[in-house]
Amino acid sequence: DAGVIQSPRHEVTEMGQEVTLRCKPISGHDYLFWYRQTMMRGLELLIYFNNNVPIDDSGMPEDRFSAKMPNASFSTLKIQPSEPRDSAVYFCASSLAPGASVSTDTQYFGPGTRLTVL
Amino acid sequence: RKEVEQDPGPFNVPEGATVAFNCTYSNSASQSFFWYRQDCRKEPKLLMSVYSSGNEDGRFTAQLNRASQYISLLIRDSKLSDSATYLCVVNEESGGYQKVTFGTGTKLQVIP
Q1: Which of these, A4, A17, A104, B1, is most buried using a 10 Å CB contact count?
Q2: CB within 8 A of A93, min separation 6: which ones?
Q3: Where are the alpha helices (H) located in chain B, listed in sequence order?
Q4: Hey, what's the torsion of the CAs at B53, B8, A91, B33, to 10 degrees?
Q5: Closest to A99 (Cβ–Cβ): which among B43, B98, B102?
Q6: How far apart are CA B34 and CA B49, in angstroms?
Q7: β-bridge partners, A22
Q8: How many A-B residue pairs are in contact by the CB < 8 A criterion?
Q9: Apex CA A84: angle with CA A9 and CA B86, to 5°?
Q10: Cα–Cα distances in Å, from B83 out to A87, A111, A115?
Q11: A84 to chain B, closest Cα gap in Å
Q12: 3-state DSSP call for residue A34?
């Protein structure tokens, strides 16, 4: 398996622009997670999906952020409008079935998208 | 109190040394526990799961203490390649919701 795939790997944009980050989870994984990582706040869970349905979006910072999962093999995280404080590395991760057993809880991370908002 | 707390370090240790990290968690209902490793400018990767009875994988030993609500990671005979940030992860399931919380990580630098 190719693992979790994210695109783009790097994104530089100007304040106010729309940014769309993309993720393809590992085939067969029912859970998909979006994280944001900064030096100040570490790794923060933004939202996660189970079978394409958003389950918990309490980590989404504000209305400028939205996430969708139209099918089992694709998810997007959109920021509109973007602000300099959104600059971070955004990771997507997938897993089989958290909570079912320790072995299925393992999350596999994509390489991340490094976002810089000027 | 943060839900998951780690000493950020950095821990600077010589090659061959033994080093231990602790991670405390606040929710006693937490169910599964992990250590992840993150190299500079890379994604986190699972290092090992943490079982109640403790588990060992080569030079690495992980332990869980539910009574005191902490997990630990012990690295023996440190190698230069062990230099990384180690993240503890606590997983809790409640009412069909999955709550995954990462610690902010402990940075380890192994020195020649």
Answers
A1: A4
A2: A4, A32, A33, A35, A107, A108, A109, A110
A3: none
A4: 10
A5: B98
A6: 4
A7: A7, A76
A8: 60
A9: 55
A10: 26, 19, 25
A11: 20
A12: strand
List CB contacts (< 8 A) between B43 and chain A: 91, 109-112
In chain B, which residues have their Cβ closer than 8 Å to the Cβ of A41?
Answer: 104
Alpha carbons B51 and A59: distance in angstroms, whole number: 28
Q: Do B32 and A99 touch (CB under 8 A)?
A: yes
Say how far apart CA A36 and CA A38 lie, in whole Å. 7
**Across the beta sheet with B4-6, what order do the strands follow?**
B4-6, B19-25, B70-75, B60-65, B55-57
Q: Which pair of tokens denotes residue A53?
A: 């349905």
Structure confidence at residue B46 (pLDDT): 92
Q: Strands of chain A (E only): list them.
A: 5-7, 10-13, 19-24, 31-38, 42-50, 53-56, 65-71, 74-79, 88-95, 108-109, 113-117
CB A45 within 8 A of CB A35: yes
pLDDT tens digits along A87-102 = 999 999 999 876 555 5
Write out the two tokens for A21: 């980050």
Whole-angstrom Cα distance, residue B71 to residue B43?
22
Instruction: State how far the Cα of A29 lies from the Cα of B65, in Å rounded to an integer.
Output: 30
Q: Which of B5, B91, B79, B11 is nearest to B46 (CA)?
A: B91
Dump pLDDT digits (tens) for B18-53: 999 999 999 888 878 999 999 999 999 999 988 777
DSSP class of residue A25?
A: P
Q: What are B99's two structure tokens?
A: 């709550």
